[in-house]
Design brief:
seven-stranded antiparallel β-sheet; phosphoprotein; 3 domains; Alpha-D-Glucose-1,6-Bisphosphate, Chain A, domain 3; carbohydrate metabolism; A-D-PHexomutase_a/b/a-I; seven-stranded mixed β-sheet; A-D-PHexomutase_CS; 18 helices; phosphoglucomutase activity; TATA-Binding Protein; binds 1,6-di-O-phosphono-alpha-D-glucopyranose; alpha/beta
């Protein structure tokens, strides 16, 4: 097999963030930028000879160009087999599913998730291991180390491979199987949920549903599963054709960016159930008619109703949530008598718990929920889980949520994001908070006494690794919390995230407005961090 070894110079900015390397497309288009990162990944893996990979992405601009480069580099580095989604498309959960199904050594997923796409948008790349999940920190650190010292990379001299036809091909001695992007994933969903029961629900005149694929990768998956296999009315899936620029949208399924769906769900002709997914299909937003379910509540409600779903009817081993996610799920775990885990932000931290069967369901406030069926969060899986619950309980989304609050109490919760602030200003905010940590415990603010103040460290119970500096937590007597951290997924300046939570079990107050209920904690969060002073920002960019 003919390949070339190309001399290159290291870049210093290839440290993977919360979920792989995310940068502007124009950064990836620099000579050798992508190649360096891919070679650094292969170097971190060690001997690639004879190993196998899954490759696919969310279809955004630069996806196919990157895949051609990665295929040639994989061949030159000795990989023997690669599975690629047709036209280079695989949603992140589908990639995880395929890695596990074909027992691949790992996978390379090309996505910048919910970040805007197109020539001026973002691109991203991450490596997943053989369990189908994002590489743990030990591997991402090794990739970064390699990226700093890289001197050359290997690439095949062969021509590009056509990615549009399903079937087997060969590139420099490496077998490439172009696979249907949708079918393996859709088949897996059928083994988890009660498709007959969901079919009956979707056939009812009294039921209606809208799913917004936001012009991103989930469209073909949602159409196949919801409309073709489950019989939902044609047109249930909107914005279902994936476009390289996501129609210039921002495919982040939240109340701000999923505008079209939100307008319909909060109108007088709202469908009974609404949902959206993000750029690469791993996030989800759940809505009822005129009703929004927070991701934290969604995790708790899925857990409390898991016995209604065939795959989980025999019980859950545990529930894991990321640290900033509300503590609602912990209350369910306590009632079920199962383990509750608190991990740092980043799906990679759930992998060990899932592999060791210490958790069955996982979730994050950032619109991510998933289970042990794969090792990524999974947007459509969450939608099907909700449909399965709605079918089994014959109640509205709002009724299911309020009954949950009646039983467990409500963790009022909000996240305030300050996007694209200059890095230095964001660091000042975090440093100012860090400086206060030793003196906060025992102090009282507006009648709330601080019971702990720290920068979260996670001790992984399976491999004993320690991840520190994972976000500043200020906890109050009674369970109220303020959490601050800087996002690890942005590509422009820094994004400061402030997470605010307060528990309420007074039944008369359960339906109160979130922002009003949390108003004094929000004010305290702003003043403790001196957000206005350091950043000049008086209001958040996004509130979820
Ligand atoms: C990624 C990670 C998630 C994380 C989210 C937000 O999601 O996989 O675990 O919660 O980013 O991270 P941050 O708060 O650091 O921006 P995705 O959907 O962007 O791949």
């Amino acid at each position: 097999m003919a390949h070339t070894t190309v001399t290159t110079t290291a870049f210093t900015d290839q440290k993977p963030g919360t979920s792989g390397l995310r940068k502007k497309v124009t950064v990836f288009q620099q000579a050798n930028y992508l190649e360096n990162f891919v070679q650094a990944t292969f170097n971190a893996i060690g001997d690639c000879v004879g190993k196998s990979l899954v490759i696919g992405g969310d279809g955004r601009f630069y996806n196919q160009t990157a895949i051609q480069i990665i295929l040639k580099m994989a061949a030159a580095n000795g990989f023997s087999q690669v599975w690629v989604g047709q036209n280079g498309i695989l949603s992140t959960p589908a990639a995880s599913c395929v890695i596990r199904k074909y027992q691949a050594f790992g996978g390379i997923i090309l996505s910048a998730s919910h970040n805007p796409a197109g020539q001026d948008g973002d691109f991203g790349i991450k490596f997943n291991t053989s369990n189908g999940g994002p590489a743990p920190e030990s591997i991402t650190e090794a990739i970064f180390e390699n990226s700093l010292t890289i001197k050359d990379y290997k690439i095949s001299n062969d021509a590009d491979i056509a990615l549009d036809e399903i079937g087997s091909k060969e590139l420099s001695g490496m077998t490439i199987d172009i696979i249907d992007s949708v079918s393996d994933y859709a088949d897996l969903m059928e083994t988890i949920f009660d498709f007959n029961q969901i079919q009956d629900l979707l056939a009812k005149d009294s039921f209606s549903m809208r799913f917004d694929a936001m012009h991103a990768v989930t469209g073909p998956y949602a159409k196949e599963i919801l409309e073709n296999r489950l019989g939902a009315e044609k047109g249930t899936v909107i914005n279902g054709i994936p476009l390289p620029d996501f129609a210039k949208g921002h495919p982040d399924p939240n109340l701000t960016y999923a505008e079209e769906l939100v307008a319909e769900m909060f109108s007088d002709h709202a469908p009974v159930f609404g949902a959206a997914s993000d750029g690469d299909g791993d996030r989800n937003m759940i809505l009822g008619a005129n009703f929004f379910v927070t991701p934290s509540d969604s995790l708790a409600i899925l857990a409390a109703n898991a016995d209604l779903v065939p795959a989980y009817k025999d019980g859950l081993s545990g529930i894991a949530r990321s640290m900033p996610t509300s503590q609602a799920a912990d209350r369910v775990a306590e009632k079920l008598g199962i383990e509750a885990h608190e991990t740092p932000t980043g799906w990679k931290f759930f992998g060990n718990l899932l592999d060791a069967d210490r958790a069955t369901l996982c979730g994050e406030e950032s619109f991510g929920t998933g289970s042990n069926h794969i090792r990524e969060k999974d947007g459509l899986w969450a939608v099907l889980f909700w449909l399965n619950i709605l079918a089994a309980r014959s109640q509205s989304v709002a009724d299911i949520v309020s009954q949950h609050w009646q039983t467990f109490g409500r963790n009022f919760y909000t996240r305030h994001d300050y996007e694209a602030i200059p890095n230095a200003e964001a660091e000042q905010v975090m440093q100012h908070l860090e400086d206060q940590l030793p003196t906060l415990t025992g102090k009282t603010f507006n009648g709330r006494t601080v019971s702990y103040a720290d920068n979260f460290s996670y001790h992984d119970p399976i491999d004993n690794s320690v991840s520190s500096q994972q976000g500043i937590r200020i906890g109050f007597d009674g369970g109220d919390r303020i959490v601050y951290r800087l996002s690890g997924t942005g590509t422009e300046g820094a994004t400061l995230r402030v997470y605010i939570e307060s528990y309420e079990d007074d039944k008369a107050k359960l339906l109160d407005d979130t922002q009003q209920t949390l108003a004094d904690l929000i004010e305290l969060a702003d003043s403790l961090a001196k957000i206005v002073d350091f950043t000049g920002r008086t209001t958040p960019t996004v509130i979820t």
